[in-house]
Amino acid sequence: MKTVLITGANKGIGFETTKQLAQLGYYVYMGSRDKSRGIEAVEKLKMQGINHVDYIEIDVTNTNSIKSARQELGNKIKALDILINNAGIAGEQPQNASSGKIDNLRKVFDTNFFGAVQATQQFIDLLKKSNEPRIVNVSSELGSLAVHSNTQNPNYAIYDAYSCSKAALNAFTVMLANEFKDTNFKINSVTPGYTATDLNQNKGTQSVEQGVKAIIKYATVDNDGPTGRYFKEAGEIDW
Question: Which of 109, 103, 69 is nearest to 89 (CA)?
Fold first, then answer.
C-alpha cells in the first residue's frame, strides 16, 4: 500500500485530500501541529469507515518538530510515496506591499514557504526510497506573477504577503523539480482554487470536494506525467 504524508491535514483541504486518497487505497499520515485536533480528525474519518489513516504531530514552522515527525514516520514505514505540502496561513490584513508589517510577512513565509522547504528536506530520503515519489506543493493562483501582472485583477493586491509566499513556493517547485529531473520524482505546484476553508473565513466559491481534485490528480500522476509545472483543475497556469 502506498503511503502519503499531508501537512495541515486536520481540516479543510488537507482533511478532504486525506479522505479521498484513503478511499483510493493509500495509507495517509495526517500531519497536524495540534495533537488533539489531529487525533480528532483521524477518529472522524474512522467513524466514516476510512481506516487507512494515522496521525503525525508536525509543526512546519518548528525544525525540531519536523525532525521528530521524520523519526516517527521512519519508524512506521520504509518509504514515503507522496508528500503534500499543504499547511498554510493567510496572514493578517492589511498586506500592502508598501506598508505591510514585516513581522506578518515573516510569519506567512515561515509557514507557507520555509515550512514546505523544511518538510521536503527532512522527508526527501524517505521519498527517494519510493519507486514513484510525488511531491505536491499546494499553491494558489495568487502565487502567479502572470496573474498579478494583469491590471484587470485589482482584487489580488489585497493579499501581498500571502501571494509572495506562494510565488516563492512556486519557485521552489521549479528548482526542486529541476534537481530531480532525471529521476522518477514528479514535483508540481497545484492550486485548489477559491475554496471555502478557514483560510478565507469560508468565503470561497467552491467546496473542498471540488478544491482537492487537482491535488489528487497530480499526487497520483504516473511516471509519464508532468513535473516542475503549475496546475489548477482546469489545466496549467502561467507562472
Answer: 109
pLDDT in tens, 157-210: 567 899 999 999 999 999 999 999 999 999 999 999 766 576 766 766 578 888
| Total of domains in the chain | 1
27 given a catalytic annotation? no
CATH number at residue 98: 3.40.50.720
- Structure confidence by residue, pLDDT tens digits, 43-92: 999 999 999 999 999 999 999 999 999 999 999 999 999 999 999 999 99
How far apart (Å, rounded) are the C-alpha atoms in residues 65 and 83?
Answer: 17
Rounded to whole angstroms, the Cα distance separating 59 from 115 reads 8
Q: How is residue 106 written as a grid cell?
A: 515573516
Compute the distance between CA of residue 105 and CA of residue 150 in angstroms, rounded to an integer: 23
Catalytic residue among 162, 194, 218, 230: 162
Q: Measured between alpha carbons, how far is residue 41 from residues 71, 145, 158, 163, 194 in Å?
A: 22, 35, 32, 28, 23
Residue range of the domain that includes 78: 3-236
